[in-house]
Write a structure and sequence with these properties.
single chain, 6-stranded parallel β-sheet, two-stranded antiparallel ribbon, 13 helices, 36% helix, 12% strand
Amino acid sequence: RCQGLLLCSSLAPRRVLSMAFCAHHRSWLAKPCLPLVARRSLSAAVAKPRLPFEGVRVLEKANLLSGRLTGLLFADQGAEVLVIDPKEGGSVDSYLNRNKIAVRASDVEPSSADIILVDGADASLARLPHQVLMRTVAALPGDERFGHLPDDVDEDYLSALTGFFTDMDMMGWLDRPVTYTPLQLCSIYAGVIGANACAAALLDRLRCGQGREIHASRIAGGLSAIGALCLKQRGLPPHLDPVPAIYKSTADILAKRRGIEPSELDAYKQAAISDPAKQAWLFQRLYPFMAPYKCSDGEWILPMATFNRRLATGYCAYLGFADDVSAFGIVDRDPYDPASAPFDDRNLALPIGFNFPSSCK
């Protein structure tokens, strides 16, 4: 590998990268927006903990969001992600290019890659036996009903097809029969699931020495999300009965979220219906670990630390308010232990079920 590529890959800051041509190395290198980490002491860089996918090389020859997001997830976890002949100008390009290196197709040896990311039936990069190849597709191979759809089919079409434009909304009790979202949820879920599939294939390669071809279906990705919202369990012991993520009426909330009076909730509801800012305020108090929050730079961030104990505790520790959470009377207990049932409305392992006073804090 080119030393320039290795230097740029290992020492570039973990920030948004722009693309620049380096004539000396005759390859595309990532030009950092901030000074290189190389200007700091090398001992600090050496002491930095290794990330999970350091040493893994990914070739990204994908223009669809799913493949590009898969590449980003690997890049953020230490993989060397080489973007072949990247295209700039899209609204999310600067975000999706983070931690990646741009290269010309002629300057990279495809056989050096562990993972290859392509769109649909792209056959420009043949998979070798040791490699994992992920194709972003609309429908899985053999799908007789939707297999005719082009792999780059419009995202709104897939959202309508899979059921996102329905009342499957965590704030649907605000008298909204249908919710529209511009988020490319089918592609996003396909990208995340595809990244997990590629990681699993790398692990399996340690066992059998063989790679795999993976099809990341955008339709299947969307259905996996909707399926989780539709899923119902019956016959479980009381301490394992899940707290619902979707409420159809204020009565549902009052039945599950203790500590708020009907008149108070109705007042909040009417205010939220008429004012988006008050809706965000209410969402933050009902779902504090998965509500949107506005940052100091004006951008919004949406944490998803609600359905997993480790994510919730890590979220508190990372943002530095773990002690405050404990002071509020919120505990961290095993949700699978029947003895924890009395704490279900203030258990950090079940933040979606916080009673209203606890979630407001």
